[in-house]
Amino acid sequence: MRIGFIGLGSMGAGMAANLIKGGHEVVVWNRSADAAKPLAEQGARVAATPAEAAKGAEVVHNMLANDAAVRDVILGSGGVLEALASGAVHVNHATISVTLAQELADSHEARGVGFVSAPVFGRPAVAAAGELNMVASGKPEAIAKVQPLLELLAAKVWPMGDDPIRAAVVKIGGNFLIGAAIESMAEASALTRSYGVEAKDFLEVMQGTLFSAPVYKIYGGMIAENRYEPVGFKLSLGFKDVGLARAAAEARRVPMPVASVLHDALLESLGRGDGDIDWAGLARVAAARANLKD
User: Fold this and answer.
1) Residue 58: what pLDDT?
2) Of 122, 148, 174, 259, whose CB count within 10 A is highest?
3) pLDDT exceeds cutoff 80 at 294
4) Do domains 2-162 and 169-289 have the same CATH topology?
5) Choosing from 55, 139, 171, 234, which is the catalytic residue?
6) All structural domains of the chain with their residue ranges
7) Which residues pair with 62 in a beta bridge?
8) Per-residue model confidence as pLDDT tens digits over 264-291
9) 44 pLDDT band (50/70/90 cuts)?
């Protein structure tokens, strides 16, 4: 199958590589051309523009950073949607607002192009291994066309129905839960440290008893070691995603008081200059509030 892949960051590069390994003809584009070089060495063709990557493609995937990037590259003048032929399908893997998910669904339907909302859970190493968890929603015919491709990228594809908003809001809700778990571990670790129990010792007990899920083990391990690089998910992106949760909640009048606390902690972290570290770095703010050294 002829596939376009837009966005070759820490997640997208591994995902595109798995489509190449699956035997597909893949044309890639990234705003920074250097990121495309490793994919070219694996057999991808590098496009000069997003439209070039989409032209002639049966399916186009994107893994872009935020609403602004998706709207510009997909919906902008000379963008992906204009280049796709009727009957093609566009798959969005980025975490975007429910408002943009609806806008994409409507604009694609108007042009006779399928749209599948398929955001993912997992860190870069998981993406490279093809072991992501993916939530997917869209019209049945569009899902059926791309299902074999999604299975190359994910250990499990979780169906979320026909409405693309459903997958988008599940992803937003999931990222909120991750952030809340990190903030809870950060605050609890600051508490135990203030009484002389190091974060490593406290979190080892928690991971071995009450909280043995991957989120607690991965992010708890980073907090215990005070290690926030290499970055799996930037703190600045966490701030963006919590903002998406708050906006979605406001639109339906759903109170989310914990989201407000998490928003403020992330904002405080950004104010400290920590936007580019992993969002487990929320622990730095919790420690600073308690007058504890990193």
Assistant:
1) 98
2) 122
3) no
4) no
5) 171
6) 2-162, 169-289
7) 6, 92
8) 999 999 999 999 999 999 999 999 999 9
9) very high
Q: What is the CATH number of domain 2-162?
A: 3.40.50.720
Q: Hunting for tokens 């009484």 — which residue is that?
A: 195
Q: How far apart are CA 127 and CA 133, in angstroms?
A: 9
- Residue 200 designated active-site: no
The model's pTM is 0.96
